[in-house]
Every structure is written in C-alpha cells, then in structure tokens.
C-alpha cells in the first residue's frame, strides 16, 4: 500500500528495495523557503541495520502489509520477551531488539499491539502511558521551584526518570513510554 511520506509514523513497517524496515522515528520539516521534507529513521528488520532517509512530504513510500494483533505480555527470558495472543492463547517470542528501549516499560499482563509479518513480530506498540512506583530519589532541596527543576529518580522497573522535586520514594507516577518522561502523579 502506497502512502505519502508525511503520514508515516513510529512503528510503521515500510518496504524498500525488497527489504522490510521498522520506522524508529519520522519527523516533518517545513522550512520557510524550499520544499517541505520528512526525515524517516528506520531499522532493517532482517539484520538490524539503521537507515535514515529524507523524502519530500508528498512523495510516496511503500507501507508493508502487516497484521496488527493484540497480545498480553507474559515474561522475559534468555530467548526474548514472550507474549500471548488473547484470542487463541498462542504464544510469540519477540527478540529484544524489536522492542528496543520500550522493553523497560513492559509489565506483566500489559496489553501490547504487535505487528506480525510472515508469522514474525516486526514491531511493538505499548500503551502511551504506564504507572510505576518511585523507589529512590534525592530529597528536595530548599528553595527549589517546582516549575523549572527536576531531579533524577529510580523507578520500580529499574528505569530512571526525571521527576519534580515534590515526588518522594513510594509515590506512584505516570510515565510516557515513548520517551520516558514524567507525566503526572498516579491517581490510584
């Protein structure tokens, strides 16, 4: 299926020169003078090589036909990450390089959308926001203003995030899975 370059998003699978590529990021540039372009960073699925291409925003690219299916995360082992199809209970093992940095945000039972091509998972889409508990953070310094300063914190999954000074260990916070940024305190 052919689509214009500006409509490509992270997680899409593109076909180029007979190879499949997973889109890592897609950014459109609209200069004041000249042609608008779209910069697409991709990873070749067959060997993991990263490629960066620039297209005119109206240029056509080939989007591979993949089947998006809902799975729930079960566990991680030496082979990779194991997911279960909720409809037929079939299990799929996804290598760590397919998930990339998103893997640190996986939680047991989490609903994840996997893109399947020829019975192989080629990309994964996690929920946009996840909740974790802060296990370790520095104490707030007197005189710090909450509006501009953030401090490092270690989360229950082992990941690190920058949080506002009022966040203390034991606080549950919401994190954006795309970039690991703090969103808000959990409301639970």
TrEMBL record:
Recorded GO CC terms: cytosol
Main location: cytoplasm
Compartment(s) where it occurs, according to its Swiss-Prot or TrEMBL record: Cytoplasm
Domain of life according to the entry: Bacteria
GO molecular function: translation elongation factor activity
Pathway in which this enzyme or protein is active: Protein biosynthesis; polypeptide chain elongation
GO BP annotations, alphabetical order: peptide biosynthetic process
Keyword annotations of the record: Cytoplasm, Elongation factor, Protein biosynthesis
Sequence ranges assigned to domain Translation elongation factor P/YeiP central in this UniProt record: 68-122
UniProt-listed InterPro entries: Elong-fact-P_C (IPR015365), NA-bd_OB-fold (IPR012340), Rib_uL2_dom2 (IPR014722), Transl_elong_fac_P/YeiP (IPR020599), Transl_elong_KOW-like (IPR013185), Transl_elong_P/YeiP_cen (IPR001059), Transl_elongation_fac_P (IPR011768), Translation_prot_SH3-like_sf (IPR008991)
Domain Elongation factor P C-terminal: residue ranges: 130-185
PANTHER family in UniProt: ELONGATION FACTOR P (PTHR30053), TRANSLATION ELONGATION FACTOR KOW-LIKE DOMAIN-CONTAINING PROTEIN (PTHR30053:SF14)
Family stated for the protein in its record: Belongs to the elongation factor P family.
Function in brief: Involved in peptide bond synthesis. Stimulates efficient translation and peptide-bond synthesis on native or reconstituted 70S ribosomes in vitro. Probably functions indirectly by altering the affinity of the ribosome for aminoacyl-tRNA, thus increasing their reactivity as acceptors for peptidyl transferase.
Protein name in the entry: Elongation factor P
Species annotation: Lichenibacterium ramalinae
UniProt gene name: efp
